[in-house]
């Protein structure tokens, strides 16, 4: 199946065995000539618990509705294939549970559906649950997740009202109330970072 486009998103997870934080890389692809399916890359599929699978479905619906692509993403035409790996692109092990990847999944899909943001590189990590109405919700394990983020991101987006420590080890934490807020914030932070890098190169 041909690949149309792909984006990568930084996500923060909790290890089911140790309870520690884990930085991971979420890759989301749009594949043409499909049947409107949403599935993991079979080369590195992990067991999914119900809350995690439901979060992915909610994310797809909200992203499709936001860009008027509901028919293509649900009824046929475009498949969504995704995979989750370590920052060094090694395979992850264990099962995936909880809904904390919902916001990142939806932002990644929105980026895919918008040609202007499809190809930008983001240093921003997201960890927030996503309600069907588009609002973001706090998640568990934020202390452990922020510790993990120190190895792969400088900015982390969380839900408004998320409690987190005052000392974040140099990580800048930003709050977003809705999916639209998170998408706008992610784009703003990525553009600001790129402008800084371009300036440094020119200097």
Descriptive notes:
The chain has 203 residues and is α/β, with parallel strands linked by helices. 33% of the residues lie in helices and 27% in strands. The protein has five helices and nine strands. The protein has helices spanning 50-66, 70-75, 102-113, 142-149, 179-202; strands spanning 5-14, 21-34, 38-40, 77-86, 124-126, 129-130, 136-137, 155-159, 172-176. The strands form two sheets. The protein has a seven-stranded mixed β-sheet. Helix 1 (50-66) packs parallel to helix 3. It is globular and about 50 Å long. The model is unreliable at 194-203 (pLDDT under 50).
Overall structural class, as computed from helix and strand content, comes to alpha/beta
Shape: globular
Biggest sheet statistics: 7 strands, mixed
Number of helical segments with 4 or more residues: 5
Order of helical and strand elements: EEEHHEHEEEHEEH
> Averaging pLDDT over every residue, what do you get?
80
């Amino acid at each position: 199946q041909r690949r149309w486009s792909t984006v990568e998103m930084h996500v923060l997870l909790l290890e089911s065995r140790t309870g520690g934080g884990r930085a991971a890389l979420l890759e989301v692809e749009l594949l043409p000539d499909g049947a409107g399916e949403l599935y993991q890359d079979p080369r590195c599929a992990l067991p999914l618990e119900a809350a995690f699978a439901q979060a992915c479905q909610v994310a797809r619906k909200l992203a499709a509705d936001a860009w008027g692509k509901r028919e293509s993403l649900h009824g046929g035409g475009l498949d969504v294939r995704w995979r989750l790996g370590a920052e060094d692109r090694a395979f992850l092990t264990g099962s995936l549970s909880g809904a904390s990847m919902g916001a990142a999944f939806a932002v990644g899909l929105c980026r895919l559906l918008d040609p202007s943001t499809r190809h930008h590189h983001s240093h921003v990590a997201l960890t927030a649950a996503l309600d069907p109405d588009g609002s973001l919700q706090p998640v568990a394990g934020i202390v452990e997740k922020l510790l993990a983020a120190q190895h792969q991101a400088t900015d982390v987006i969380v839900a408004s009202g998320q409690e987190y420590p005052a000392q974040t080890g140099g990580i800048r934490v930003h709050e977003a109330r809705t999916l639209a807020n998170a998408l706008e914030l992610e784009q703003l932070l990525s553009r600001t970072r790129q402008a800084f890098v371009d300036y440094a190169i020119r200097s």
